[in-house]
Every structure is written in C-alpha cells, then in structure tokens.
Amino acid sequence: MAQTGTLTKQITIKSDGDVFHEIFRYRPHHIADMSPEYIKGVDLHDGHEWGTVGSIITWNYFHDGKPKEAKEKIEAIDEAKKSVCFKVIGGDILEAYKNFMITVHVDTHGEENVVTWTFHYEKLNESVPDPNSLMDFVLSVTKDIETHHLK
C-alpha cells in the first residue's frame, strides 16, 4: 500500500467563482459565519495580513464528531488560476499524516464554476486511511459557502 497519495475532487457551484477564491485567499476567517456547523473559527496566527504567501492560519473545526485544529501555511497563490495552496504544519491532521498539502482551485465559466480540491499527503504508516472523510468535509464546507452566497 502506498504511503503517499493524491486525492482530487471537483464540485460545481452556482455562486461566483471569483468570490469563492477571494474568500479562501483574503477572508478565510469569514468561513465560520458561512459554515458554522463545520468551521468554528479561523485566525491569522502569523503574518502581517490575510492572503499572503507565508502567512500561517489556524483553523478550528468540527470533523468526525470532534473539535479539531489545523495550522496551515500559505505556500502558494496563483491569481490567474484562482488557486491557493496550504501546507499543514500543525494540528490533528499531522497525527495521521507526515505531510499534507491542500490546494483549492476555482475554474470560472460564466455562471458555472468548478471548485477543485486536491490533497497531496504522506501517511505516517500504512494503516492510516486515505483522507476521504476530510475531502467530504471540505466539500460540505464548499456547499455551505455556496448556499451562503446564493441567499
């Protein structure tokens, strides 16, 4: 069984793709208001401002019936591709994974926008499951953000 892997899922949203990208880049702290069932709080842990490479963000969230935390560093931002890449540097995810990268990317096509989530990961050992539950979690948050903007 492979210790490293990549998991990618796409979801079509009806809300504005540019706004979706802007939320993950500049306003992730607003996601707690858009998805309160899953996201309990997002704080800028280190860095001068939101949305800059090198900034460290702490996420407090509720996943698999438990409160959890993730500390992520913004590794890369590509405005042309509307993508943000986060490297997990602390928290619950690293109890099962040695390395974990999350990329969220938005393709905008008029009124139809496709959000692509990609996880690149290395398991601590072969008994660790693939992060399918975490992928379902981010897809649920994506739907909540869409619902919030369609109101």
Q: Can you characterise this structure?
A:
- The chain has 151 residues and is of the alpha+beta class.
- Helices cover 22% and strands 48% of the residues.
- It has a single domain (4-150), classed as Alpha-D-Glucose-1,6-Bisphosphate, Chain A, domain 4, CATH 3.30.530.
- A seven-stranded antiparallel sheet has the order 1-7-6-5-4-3-2.
- The chain is globular, with a radius of gyration of 15 Å.
Shape: globular
Provide the number of structural domains: 1
The beta-strand count equals 7
Fraction of residues in β-strands: over 45%
What is the strand arrangement across the widest sheet? 1-7-6-5-4-3-2
- Oligomeric state of the chains in view: single chain
Major beta sheet summary: 7 strands, antiparallel
Global Rg: 15 Å
Ranges with pLDDT <50 over ≥5 residues? none
Annotated CATH homologous superfamily: START domain
> Which sequence of SSEs, written as H and E, runs from N to C?
EHHEEEEEEH
Q: Can you tell me the CATH class?
A: Alpha Beta
Q: Supply the helix-strand structural class.
A: alpha+beta
- The total of helices stands at 3
Rounded to the nearest angstrom, the distance between the terminal CA atoms is: 45 Å
CATH architecture: 2-Layer Sandwich
Any idea of the CATH topology?
Alpha-D-Glucose-1,6-Bisphosphate, Chain A, domain 4
What value does the average pLDDT take?
A: 93
Summarize the amount of helix as a percent range.
Answer: 10-25%
